Amino acid sequence: MSDIARPTTGPPGFLMKRWHKCSSGNTKTSVLLRELPSLDQVLRRQSRPPVCLYNFYIVLRDRLELETLLDFWLDVQQAKVLYKRHIKQSTKKSNTRNMTPPLSPAPTTMSHDQQLTHSLLMLASGNSSVARPSVGTVGSHGSNNTTSTVVTRAAMQEFIEHIYLRYIVPNAEKELMHLPLSMRDAIADQFASSKTGITDPFMVFNDAQHYVHQLLQATWPYFLRYKALMNLTLNQQLGRIAAGLAALLVGFSVEFSLIFLNIQPWHTRIWGVLPIFVGVYCLISGLTGLDPIWVLAFNVSETTTFHFNRIQQPNVRPILSERSIVVLAVCLLITILLIIIFCALPGKRL
C-alpha cells in the first residue's frame, strides 16, 4: 500500500509548484502557511472557516470531483464510533447485570418491622445506580432522557451493509473507483463468507479507510491553496474573467472613440477609467481567485457561488489580507498606466 495512486483530477502541476514555493522559505506568508490546520484536524472538526470540513467537501466536490472519498471516510468513521458505543453499552450492561448483589436474608432473630427495614435497605443499596438519575439525563422539565441512543447489533449490521452497498459493490450509488480492485474484492469476500452478519467496521473497512485517508492527504495542498490563498469559487472566477473582458472592451471602445473623434478637452478621456478599472479588477481577481474588497472590507470567503463564510481561522486572514493588498495595488497600477497612455495619445478625427 506504499504506492498510493494520485487523484486523476485536480489543478495542473504548475499550481502545486507555486504552492510549494509559497510554503517554503522564511517569509511571513510561508510561516503562516506552515501553521495552517492539518488534514486530521479538519477531519476531527478542530479548525474554523474557511479551512474547515464543510469547505473541504465543497472543494473536493466542485473542483476536484473527489467528494466520494470524503463521504466514504466519514461514513466508516461514523461506523467505528457506533461500534465503540455498541461495545461499551454491551459491556456496561453485562457488568451491571453481574455486579447486582443478591439480597441477603434478614436474620431470623429480627422482629417483623426490623426485617422489613433490612429488606428495604438492601434493595436500595442494590439499585441505587438505577434509581438516582444523573444531571445529564434530567431534562428541563424533570423527565429522564437518555444521553445516547442504544446501538443494537442489528443496527450495526445494517449500517455496515449500507456502506458496502453504497461504495463497494459494482455500479453502486457512489462506487469508490479509487480503491484497488484487490481491496474491494477482499471486502466483498468478507461479506460473502459472513453468515451471521458483520458488526465490526475495523475488520472490514480499516484498510480501505487508511488508503482513502492517504488519497485525501494527497489532495490537501490543493484545498489549502484554494481556501488559504484564494476566496473565490471556480464559477465566480470564470464569471469575473468574462465580465472583465467585456468591461475592458467597453473601456477601450470609449477611449478609442474619444481619440478618433478628437473630443476636446483631452481630460474627457479620463471617464474611460471606470470601465477599464472594473475590467482590470474583474480580470485579475478572476485569474488569481482573490477578491481584495471581499477580504479587506467584509472579511468573507466564498463557499459556493455568492454564499460566504466569515474568515475565522487565525492564520488565514493575514495571508489573504497581504495578497489582497498586492492584487489591489496591481489593479490600480495597470489602470493608471492605461489611462496615462490613452490620455497621452494625440486625437485625430477620422
From TrEMBL:
The keyword Membrane applies. Residues 89-111 are annotated as: Disordered. It comes from the Eukaryota. Residues 96-111 have a biased composition (Polar residues). SUPFAM superfamilies: Regulator of G-protein signaling, RGS. Keywords: Membrane, Transmembrane, Transmembrane helix. The chain crosses the membrane at residues 241-263, 270-290, 325-345. One of its GO terms (biological process) is intracellular protein localization. PANTHER family: A-KINASE ANCHOR PROTEIN 10, MITOCHONDRIAL, A-KINASE ANCHOR PROTEINS. This is RGS domain-containing protein.
